[in-house]
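Recap for those who missed Tuesday's class. We walked through two folding examples back to back. For each one, the amino acid string is listed first and its predicted structure tokens come directly after. Nothing is annotated here on purpose, so try labeling regions yourself before you check the end of the notes.
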Amino acid sequence: MLAFAISHKMRQTSVVLAGLIVFLLPILVGISGVLLPAAGYFPALGFNQLSFHPAMSFITTPGVSASIWLALKTGLIATIFSLLCCFIILTGLMHDRGFSLLRRTLAALVAVPHSAIAIGLVFLLAPSGWLIRILSPGITGFDSPPDWSLVPDPYGWVLIFGLMAKEIPFLLMVSLAAIATLPVRQFEQIANSLGYGRVAAWATLILPLIYRQIRLPVFAVLVFSLSVVDMALLLAPTLPPPLAILVLHGFLDADLAARLPASFGAILQIALAVIGIGIWYAVEALCRHFISSWQRGGWRLGKIDRYLPVFSIMAVIPLAAACAGLVAACLWSIAGSWFFPSALPQNFHLIHWQDMTSYVPLLKNSFLLAGGASFAALLVVLAWSYAAPFSNFTNRWLLGCIFMPFFIPQISFLLGMQISLSRVGLDGTWLALIWVHMIFILPYTWLIVIPARRALDHRLDHLAATLGASGWRRFITLHMPLMAYPLATALFIGIAVSMALYLPTVFVGAGRINTITVEAVSLASGGSRGPAGLAAMLQIAIPVISFAIIHWGLRCRFGRFSGMQSGRLQ
């Protein structure tokens, strides 16, 4: 018994240490790689003493205060509006027939990379974009593109809109997963019997319970919105840009000494994320106070329900705009002549698609990187789940390591990680790039696989063990069929997340390993509409093709186990 306890403790310790090595160590190394230059210490460039000069140099940069305010404003407003729209859609459309169509499109929108959404919005909202073309000249009276431009706008509202178009589907998916664990119908019936309207019932009873379960993804959305790079490069104002873009420009400056003040900006980005989370806590407190007052007052607010369809339609507008933008990108990829103000191209051609040979290396890199990182993340999670039972100690420390990439801005540690990798000769290698992508993929894999692993009916496992089946045989013949769909979902989500990773690929890839996402952002920034539209379509194609392959393989291998999805005895 003592030997078993010692072995159990050793397995737990090894799991925690593995988590620290895989996740915590690279992030800490990356942060130290920007912390020391931020303090003026960069021996490679001849800076051997600590100083406040990098901090003062960055703080005195023209427009830096406006950049900080822009990043804070866009990040907070985008997160608040995304969560509000998510809750409005759930409240107003949850039981409508049209919600099933919206629900089927969520996975597709979540799989679309941020840069593809941004490219689509550029094609939609530009002065000669598809929206102006559709409304001209009948409604707008424009016979030529207007002089003003919505993309980018000087206040960051288009960036907020783009973030909402991407984050609303994600929050809806996690919210629907939370709703599956709640007796929503019973709650609605009880509220209706007490005279509460639909809005009052959901706002005071159901939505607070949903928010408790999706709080972690909301924080992840907030930190990402505060430090977004790929969407900001296309949609954010340039004078001044958001803080993350200002830091990125410093890192990419030809003058290597500019990395020192940029490093301080990266540390400032972490402080901005902390401030954003602190403000969010204050908003949570205000909302709790308001809902408590609402509950104590017994406000039924039945008259508000009549306006709920209007609010629901308004909440869906960002999703509709994202879909319309992707259609516009597709049209530009096959457009020949398309003169303003025609709503559709005068003719079509496949010149850009015929030049696919130049994109083949990028597609190959993207597919191998996304598939390799997703598969590696899945193997790591499965190894952890079977290495040791998940006690509170293991959960507390290991989960802290796993979810840390959610709460630390990418720009804050990727440069330091790249510098550290260059010192050991691993920058620009497939090993380093797959490792970094795996760090960002694994939290999503964990959230999908571990609940499925815990939901398995262990009576089946014990029965197989009594029949002499080894642990490996039980995993292959029993656990894999029961967990087939969660594992396939984890692979698909991992590929989609990897496709959306722009900044890790730029830094860790060191320009030697490029992907279709990096190329798409570059083409869109350069104003090449046709090639950019093609690149956006190719970004979407990889997750779609991957999903088709995974689904086909799943049906071929585990189709006969379709009645065992729950992992329990029937």
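Example two. Treat it independently of the first, because the proteins are unrelated.
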Amino acid sequence: MNYTDSPHGNNGITYRPPHIGSKGAVVANHPLAAQAGMKTLSRGGNAVDAMVSVAFSLGVAEPSGSSIGGDGFIMIHMNKINSIEIANGTGAAPYAATSSKYSDGIPSFGMKSTSTPGILDAILRSHEKYGTLSLKECIDPAIELCEEGVPTTYFQAEDMKKIKALIEFPSSSEVFAPNGKWLKPGEKRRNLNLSKTYQRIIEGGRDEFYLGETAQKMVKFSEDTGGLLSLNDLSKHTMIWQKPISTNYRGKEVYEAPPNSSGHVLLQELNILENFDLQSHNYLSPESLHLMVEAKKLSFADREAFLADPEFIDVPIEGLLSKEYSKERSYLISLEKAIEKPEEGDPWNYMKRHPEKNKKYRFNKRLHLPGGDTTHYCIVDQWGNSLSGLQSIQTAYGSGIIAGDTGILMNNRMTYWHLDPEHIDFLNPGQRVRHTMNPVMVFSNQIEKGGKVELVCGTPGADTQVQTNLQIITSIYDYELNVAEAIEGPRWTHYQGKTNSAYPHKEENFLEIESRISKETFENMRNKGHKTISSGAFGGAGCAGAIQIYGKEKTLFASSDLRKDGYSSVW
């Protein structure tokens, strides 16, 4: 295949041009959610106001990946003060969720799979801090979708049939399969109970959800159906404001969310790749793919060994992000042969401090004890504020259970915990599990040195997120593709044994490549030792979205993934 014959760019292949605007852009995993955000921008709202509209609308329009019954991260860049903050909206394991309660394993569906919902607190506190419009103005578009109904897409009609809980449980079936019949493409999906919940949140704010009537309804439902969620879990929850972590990749500063996010994995991948002349190898060549896959494998081995909730676990993040450490790791990569069994390195050797003795940590490959589908959106407003957000209920449709008459689809995030006491992320009540979600921004330089935002991006897809983001960034900055080409271009995904985030954390080792990548590349990767299979033309993981801010005019190029129902809207 010729990758230089795109009708909409110069270097790659795309099927749709990027949408171009100047005053605002919204990218989301459903057209109606993107339009809700754009409606808020056009009324004078800023990026955070639009985020509220998008986030609440996605809970109606794209329930497979989003709900206020889930969790997530929101990366916010306010242009006037030139700062980046992360609103960490991940919730902890319920205090009753001891490992003994899961002696038969962690279920994939039902309320016992649900951790404390955290994203709503992050959404509302972000709005309280930076929003300009009223909460009602921001949420009203989502309420309208609840009441008027959202037409079922072709993708959704087939996707939800895979989740039997949606039709077997009455409160879920009422929304997804009325009268016991799955909704067909074009048929409207209404959630009147969720509309009422949204209205209560407008009136009562975050306390309504964590202390009020909605909290009591969720807990009562959980108790009645064998769940572990309590009022104590909800009342003690609070989001966390975090500073980003970053690395410089070929002159650009790439910002990510810190632990308990897996954001450092993307930064490690880039640091390792920087030791190779990627540009000397053609776009989607066997050599360029091989280098990226190997960088991913080494970075995932480190994540498996070291990453967990930093409030409980001492994560050697400075060592993991050290350029010297990544150079050492890069020596393990051969251009001719795939690494068969990637192991963690020793990032503590690149730390300026010793491990904290009051926290659990892994050192010299020993554990020392103290004395999971998702949705993504990105937004840029007319004032240059930008936002990258991820919300998740873990797997597609989460627990599969709507909590009674709240209309809220609950998460199944408990499936991310490990039940092996020797694992760094062993289940601990009241602790946040490690997450795969990682919002991304790329700046021309460090913010402290006057750097300006150039790219806002992200994707759903669990363990595939940092892999997709890696491919997008290298496509743009190594191969000069535009955002549409970077997102729609052929994609690879590597699966790596016990690094699978979801219980039971087992997976075969194989490399999945879309069939639009040449047969020659496919066979060459096999010859290097990669167990390579085809995922079809557009079977790659994720549903990426990105906004590129270009040139002195700050022109906005927005694009969304055609692998699902992604959509971009510009002004």
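Answers for example two:
The CA atoms of residues 259 and 310 lie 6 Å apart.
Residues 35-241+394-416 form one domain.
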